[in-house]
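Escalated from tier 1: ME8 holo job.
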Amino acid sequence: MSKGPFYITTPIYYPSDKLHIGHSYCTTAADAMARYKRLQGYDVMFLTGTDEHGQKIEDKAKEAGVTPKQFVDSIVEGPSGVKALWKLMNISNDRFIRTTDDYHVEAIQKIFRKMYEKGDIYKGVYKGKYCKPCESFWTESQLVDGCCPDCGRPVVDAEEEAYFFRLSKYADRVQHLLEDTDFLQPRSRVNEMVNNFIKPGLEDLCVSRTSFNWGIPVDFDPGHVVYVWVDALFNYVTALGFDNDRYHDYDKFWPADVHFVGKEIVRFHSIIWPAMLMSMELPLPKHVFGHGWLLIDGGKMSKSKGNVVDPYILAEHYGVDALRFFLLRTFPFGSDGNFSNEALISTINTDLANDLGNLVSRSLSMIDKYFGGTIPAVRQAEPIDEELIAVINGARAEYEKEMDAFALQNGLAAVFKVLDRANKYIDETAPWILGKEEAKRDRLASVLYNLTEAIRVSAILLTPFMPDTADKILAMLECSGCHNTWEEAQYLVRCEPVTVHKGENLFPRLDVEKELAYLEAERAARFGKQPEQPAAEKPADKQPEKPEGVASIIDIAEFQKVNLRVAQVTACEPVPKADKLLRLTLDDGTAEGRQVVSGIAPWYKPEDLVGKKLVIVANLKPAKLRGVLSQGMILAADPGDGSANVLFVDESVPVGSKVR
Ligand code: ME8
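Tier 2 regenerated the structure:
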């Protein structure tokens, strides 16, 4: 029987054929939530889709010499587009919306008109700043160093006749929603929204454009197209049939239980979206959850940096379940997480090969060995069993509490408590010793049965995270009359023989060095050689360490090739659009001086460096970093945590001094 409706959404993605593992993160998490709710018996609607309008798409289509619709079609439906990626990741969405779908277009026109007729949308002149890549308007005061506060890229001046949405009218109600309810999660995101956006004064939002065409036309004022974020946000209701006849699920599923979104689009979902729903007098979604980003070496992944992680390489090699599991087990969903191949391999080895795979294969092998695959129907309880059974029976409630709070990582931790306890139980009960004595056969059967129960319950709870693996495990524990439902995720006393079918090894242990080499070779084959990093960024690169005193030995002649000099910082400033980089102007004792770009911005402010003396590699081949010339590098120590500690030199040492 259904426990009622549950509606979950992901953001709708910009059509791109450059999708990376970060893009899979939110959808994998939403998929696990959707499967969890289905397992519990809810009637789930899981929506995802693509956000296909806007100037960026129009520009790209022009570059490609095709119409915008041809452009988005080729990407959305293409072999490396969004739909293909969701197929790869085994995403079980119930619906897929494209904002170019007719029913959505028609509904957005009606919605826009309703807000206009209500007086919440009015005509004015837009003057301000616009970030094309983010399709976002900004006021001067919101810019960071003159650039878009979200992506750090330059903005352009924009001035045109436009429609505005009276966002200011809803400021108090939205502030109350954020501060006094659990609408926005995790709670840590509330202050940022209130302090950075609401308290400085919410300005009315520009909601139409006239300078390009690729958008939904405002039907009562041709020449205007609806601002892409208005078009995009309402997908969550149009996909249910709001203001259109394509679907008829609005009454059943709205308001949504949760929108999962990345942290950079929380502003749209927690301020603009509720305000527009208030204007439309529609119920508000119950929750918006702003998850963190997957980072590489603390920074964003991007194709231009050559550091994107390709989900296809990983899924093909390790299996999609291992990849899904890694994403949700390793990083707390609300925070940023640093992706690394080392962490992936270590999670597979520790959690999947050791804790899960080994438990299954040891238990089933012993059932095969001692009972020919069928555990006889004798159940002999001893006090030592109680602790295991208590952990098995406690798992579901703990898992439920965590999953309902969108703490997916902790949900998995509840399952791993069972697996850990079961592994310990094997050591405590030592079935291989019981197996030596005929008189202990009943006890042996009971111990092995208890293990199958620990595995069965864990597999049920793992289903949302690793659907195929969980199915495989449950098939190994064939069990007539048991349905492996949510209700049966409890220790069951079954007084009948239990037959198992030992299958393949679920997760063979990986050789770390071999795997790292393989992944790097694959990455290089698809994306080219790793780009040269700024020299001072090296501490942050987790370069595999060379065994000390072996590969790292050089002779004195080699060392002498390096020209190390003392230089003084005369000026220093951040490099625009590069979070990590500083440009240092140096007096190196030569008439011309030089400039060096260094990846030390996370640890030093420009004013900390001006006037200081430090050591530079003076004969390093010049390189351009983010378009800025760097003539050498500065030396910094890495204590092992990836940070940079610049080697400062005493005041009294003259600039230009040789370091040897
Ligand atoms: O923002 N780690 O679309 P989008 C985690 N169309 N999440 C990441 C990520 C990373 N490294 N990189 C991207 C849009 N994402 C709009 C949404 S909704 C009405 C409109 C996430 O394709 C990002 O945070 O740029 C966002 O939630 C999602 O991918 C889609 O990003």
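The pocket of ME8 is lined by residues 11-14, 22-23, 25-26, 51, 232-233, 235, 261-262, 264-265, 293-294, 301 (CB under 6 Å).
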